[in-house]
Amino acid sequence: xxxxxxxxxxxGGGDAPGLNAVIRGVVKSAIRRHGWRVIGICxxxxxxxxxxGCLPLTWDAVSGILPRGxxxxxxxxxxxxxAYRHMENGKEQVTDxxxxxxxxxxxxxxxxxxxxxxxxxxxxxxxxxxxxxxxxGVPKTIDNDLSATETTFGFDTALHVATDAIDRLHTTAESHxxxxxxxxxxxxxxxxALQSGIAGGADVVLLPEIPxxxxxxxxxxxxxxxxxRRFSLxxxxxxxxxxxxxxxxxxxxxxxxxxxxxRIAGVLRGMLQKExxxxxxxxxxxxxxxxxFDRILATRFGVAATQLVARGEFGRMVCLRAGKIDSVPLxxxxxxxxxxxxxxxxxxxxRSVGMMFGDES
Amino acid sequence: xxxxxxxxxxxGGGDAPGLNAVIRGVVKSAIRRHGWRVIGICxxxxxxxxxxGCLPLTWDAVSGILPRGxxxxxxxxxxxxxAYRHMENGKEQVTDxxxxxxxxxxxxxxxxxxxxxxxxxxxxxxxxxxxxxxxxGVPKTIDNDLSATETTFGFDTALHVATDAIDRLHTTAESHxxxxxxxxxxxxxxxxALQSGIAGGADVVLLPEIPxxxxxxxxxxxxxxxxxRRFSLxxxxxxxxxxxxxxxxxxxxxxxxxxxxxRIAGVLRGMLQKExxxxxxxxxxxxxxxxxFDRILATRFGVAATQLVARGEFGRMVCLRAGKIDSVPLxxxxxxxxxxxxxxxxxxxxRSVGMMFGDES
Amino acid sequence: xxxxxxxxxxxGGGDAPGLNAVIRGVVKSAIRRHGWRVIGICxxxxxxxxxxGCLPLTWDAVSGILPRGxxxxxxxxxxxxxAYRHMENGKEQVTDxxxxxxxxxxxxxxxxxxxxxxxxxxxxxxxxxxxxxxxxGVPKTIDNDLSATETTFGFDTALHVATDAIDRLHTTAESHxxxxxxxxxxxxxxxxALQSGIAGGADVVLLPEIPxxxxxxxxxxxxxxxxxRRFSLxxxxxxxxxxxxxxxxxxxxxxxxxxxxxRIAGVLRGMLQKExxxxxxxxxxxxxxxxxFDRILATRFGVAATQLVARGEFGRMVCLRAGKIDSVPLxxxxxxxxxxxxxxxxxxxxRSVGMMFGDES
Amino acid sequence: xxxxxxxxxxxGGGDAPGLNAVIRGVVKSAIRRHGWRVIGICxxxxxxxxxxGCLPLTWDAVSGILPRGxxxxxxxxxxxxxAYRHMENGKEQVTDxxxxxxxxxxxxxxxxxxxxxxxxxxxxxxxxxxxxxxxxGVPKTIDNDLSATETTFGFDTALHVATDAIDRLHTTAESHxxxxxxxxxxxxxxxxALQSGIAGGADVVLLPEIPxxxxxxxxxxxxxxxxxRRFSLxxxxxxxxxxxxxxxxxxxxxxxxxxxxxRIAGVLRGMLQKExxxxxxxxxxxxxxxxxFDRILATRFGVAATQLVARGEFGRMVCLRAGKIDSVPLxxxxxxxxxxxxxxxxxxxxRSVGMMFGDES
Lengths: 361, 361, 361, 361
Hints:
homotetramer, alpha/beta, Rossmann fold, 7-stranded mixed β-sheet, 11 helices, 36% helix, 18% strand
């Protein structure tokens, strides 16, 4: 194994609270434990294509970033170097910059790269690894839907934002005898909706994993009213499956994040003859200072990634298992997502305290 | 002046953080200072129509409600007793219950009523006052748009929620080099947008009081990019005036709260060729535990309202002037709203630190 | 196994955020899943001695308590029914009320009791179990020092309060070039100090598990100054071991929680000739609304305790293992505490990012 | 009036949330409105003595500091240039560096200086002004005890921290039937204690302005117990006047901030035979991100200070009056402090909702 002198660190995809804590963990442990230099690769892998964008990451450069949201490296949801899309003369071009990236990594003297990202970014990392670049991964998914790790940073902070919003809406819903909807993140997996629903004491939670019927929601709201509870709080995961038709047989146009809860509320407004208000939390769930849990986990991930590099365990990703730091092959990161089990303990707990999922008969 | 033995307290309209603190202030000072009984009139004026809905407000009943959002009385945006809308045999009926209310107030032994509300609710209070009911008012408007009082409770809490959202979006906008929109409350007056914009360091703020041009927003975003700031944060008051046509001359369909920021973002996305994300904060701004400022002001208003009753100064509303509690005739409450002055100090301060309003040439 | 119709729920010891969420979880799942009645035993086991203090726990009684700190049952650090201390005619008496408790449990029709508590309270629970009372336990320790469970509710909330304080002190320390001390909870185990220290980016952390030397702290502060960092933030666990003498050989008087950090600061003030300010967080760490994580874990524990009762698995305590709910014999709860491992991963991570523990040579 | 090209900005004394917002307000408005250069004078007036410590304050240098606590300039409670204390050969020397400062100000090309500070720092500013330096002042006092301005930045944030602590302690006090003390800032003026007490619903508040008797506090706690309220929450301003003797005639040793509440609790513990717990909030009240109100007021102050400079109105300090920005002569800043009026409206409001001040007979 070649001696390590300089490593790079990169991140890609949507930001998540804790990214800066990972970067700080990588940099400080690389310097203090191993005496390495660290170079920041900015905006996904862009600085491997245009290396003048690289950021020298000294001890000072990462001091004070621990409590900050976002990422000092910048990030992007685009920019796959193996198929880079860009406009040229008004036409979209797709270029393979991967060879240039490998060459630049060599020129920059990068003996290894720590890549922080979700399945998209880690797929690219794995492709680079196959092409000979020594890579280790750090998982990042605010939806907490990776099966290779018990949990990831960012999710706990998102849960705080969503739960705080539910707490606030609760007082208004109760005072106004209203049905209140709040749409939270979760395209494929409903973890934020389920857990913020439990934490906030929501009455109905609609998940991608549990198909719902409008009649069941109406029944839940009406059952509450019969018990004197004239308000209901409904949490909707943005990736919930919209039925094709409403109970009257009318087709419901498809709707994506930001619209799906309004679509559902629209149908129910007619059925319940009740005021329904909708809040779409959106990107506030991704931002802001990470929670203590996220800062700690992110720091552990960063330090652990440096250790993987030091031990030459490339092509692997750090993960959390039974509260302990471990690692798995990178390809496990992009395996099938970890979904909410409709028959699992958490859903059963939710039902036990009175939560409905719209699948009740 | 007849001796006071029992007073009622009512609230109507949208809820605002601090309502419970006002109610507690009224009840505790009525009991401790004057030895009165207090009866809670629930859901607007509904309990004056159906008096079995009244709530006896003892010292114990209001203990512990100070930090809670919402209102223990319940509230409603409907239910004007002078023109009560309800369904009968499938048809909407409008009934004048005001006589019944006056009769029930007498039967309940109410020697005076404290009414907490915005211009709608206080208009009704004034109508009751003209019909002989001894009434005092407490102003409530989360938009802070009453000219009769320097400020009202609830606004500071709303400002916290909006500013916290802007802070969170800032980190994401910066990391992703995006334009981020956040839509906040403010139908006629843009106080929440302007002040949360200043507090959050927003780049562009769109207000009902300042007509904007799409070109000016584009210029602002582009000027920032030229200075190396590849992100912009835009705060939109829900009551902003949408231009009738976009710069290409295409008509823009009208849009109300919850949609207006999406409409603006839609036009700009085409003009800027840039990713724009929209968050609509909605009712989370009204809910949750009131800020210290709002708890203190609400408590002062509640105690002051009781004093107005004790002094027999009916037909008046408490208010804040130069940091001191004062009172004004109820009709002043429903006078013209307090709007943002486009040439006022606060807008000038905002421009001085670099904020744009979309009216720049 | 006898049919269950009525269960009791009790809690004892210091309060922890999430207690109400456990109680709600027990009550709602008992009613919804099993149709049982639930009786609340107030102030430790006091209501088993004086049963008129019992609280009927209906669905309504536990509605809305999920986000509230404290416990609706009240609690106490005293009141062991097997050796109840009370004053009689100016003298302290110790009485064994355990027989009376068992008799009252029978009279109240309690078929089982769920006891939420730390090692003290669960020891009593086990004594009752040995005397024939069907008991299940729920672990509660804000210090997170039970080896029988991966984590307990309340700890995450305490971590938030401590980390928020460190964040706030950081800005002042940095602006004033000061050494700032903050004393946090943790009598035997330093988990809160260690984890809030990592989350807050503290410079020095003093734990009960790692004996420190004054010289090492001075060296750490001075090394930082040489790097241009003219401030240091020191987190002290209240149970830290105070050296018997200062470096000058003068004896240091022993000091307990609330004083120990002042004692250490006093010695260092002389050695460093630098301003040192001390904050003792105290009971604010125990109070307030539980974090989402704590609410969810507490709810899961409450539901799981009800399931233990339903399956007749008495004498056991619910716990969390590898993120999953499990159970262990009650005696495991009172086994040796889970301490910070001075050579464990978390301490190593902390050292890797530059934290000192005062044991450096 | 000479043309302005370059201004300096300095701050001194204890830090307060909002300092950075003032600095940003000064810098951005100086650049945008007037095209001036701005130089930051660090650590009080130190950089006027050693000008190599100056910080060029460009637009970029102040971008992103709005939400941050502390001050980018650093600050100090010492360092009066007219009588600078320092150690030389083991002896304390006092040197008058004021002439050097004036000379350096000239060398640096400073046409005016904006000084942000409390009465100590502004006295120095005034002395410089008398010596011919064009100075304008911005008031800073976290205790809100300046009579020349309605309110200052930092106070609202301190109120948030104190109220949040009271909210947290409330749940524990209530669950444990305890008396809880919390000591807050306020050496001469009890504004934080009074206002956080009202906002948090404290039972007893002890202020510097209202001498208390131990017997009255005991009576208050006992009266509550007779009403079934077995807990009490006591807020103590750090500057409260300690009686010379306890009710038994024993002398009470004097105690300053951090100790005074423990001293009072010690006496009451004996009198009440009840558990009393004490929390000393300390410097967490000064730190952290400023509240929206403080960010806005600080920004307004910064912009207004620049305007004073532009209009040549030196020797004056900006202030807030009836919600509007105004200015007063600098000497007014160091006039007698604004104290709580024991017969004023706020104290009366507090008494009306049941708060005691220990002066009740």
